[in-house]
Structures are given as structure tokens and as C-alpha cells.
Amino acid sequence: MLDAEDAQGADLRSIAEASELLGVTQRTLRFYEDKGLIRPRRVGSMRVYSRREMGRMQLILRGKRLGFSIREIGEFLSLYDDGGGRIEQMRHLQSRINERLRELQDQRRAIEQTIDELVKMEGEAQDRIDALERGGD
């Protein structure tokens, strides 16, 4: 049943409107619906997205951007649904965030090392080119 706010239609979006506002395809919205992460309402055969579902999609997209799995995002959404009041769940969330931070920091270090090595190799290649152009070995 529609609540008073949604009954006016002001906060309901069609799948086309929702996908455009979120910057995703309609197929993406249906994918997350199939995974049970969002539950758009139906008006006849049309999917409609409430403010709540739009908020959930923003959380999903943020989780994906941060590299979390669908399962992890589902766990985070359950915290959102529960109001985040259960301390054990919040500690688990914090633990997963810290783990992801460590992974990304490790990746950043590896990328920085690779960049440093490539810069050094590029300099060595340029030195060799310069020497060859001067006619030396």
C-alpha cells in the first residue's frame, strides 16, 4: 500500500526516470531487484521506485564503487533497514570497511611502485636514445 507521501506520486519514479537519475541502465535496476537488494513497487505492470528505493540504490552503487560484493552490500543494507542499531552488526561493518581500506592501500602501494619503476625505465630508455642519437654506444 502506498503511504501518504508516495500516494501523491511526487516521490515515485518510473524505471526510466530512476535509471536516468541514478546514472545506470534499467537492466542494472532489474539486476539489483533480482538479487533482492531493492524492491520497487508495482503499479499495474510498471515498476515504480520510491524515495527509499532510490536511497537504497545510491547505497548499492556506493558499495560497488568501493569494491564490495553483492553479498556484502546486502549485509550493509540490512543494517540500513535495521536502523544500524545492533552493535555487533556495526562492528562487522566496520571490520569489512577496515579490511577494504587495507586492500586498497596495498593496491595503491603496488601501483606507486610500478609507476616508480616505469618512470625509471622510461628515463633509462631516453638516456639510451640520446646516446644513440649522439652516435655513441
Automatic annotation (TrEMBL):
Coiled-coil-forming residues are 87-124
Domain HTH merR-type positions: 14-79
Keywords assigned by UniProt, alphabetized: Coiled coil, DNA-binding
Q: What is this protein called?
A: MerR family DNA-binding transcriptional regulator
Check the record and name the InterPro entries matching this protein. Answer: DNA-bd_dom_put_sf, MerR-type_HTH_dom, MerR_fam
* Single GO term (MF): DNA binding
Species whose genome carries this gene: Aurantiacibacter spongiae
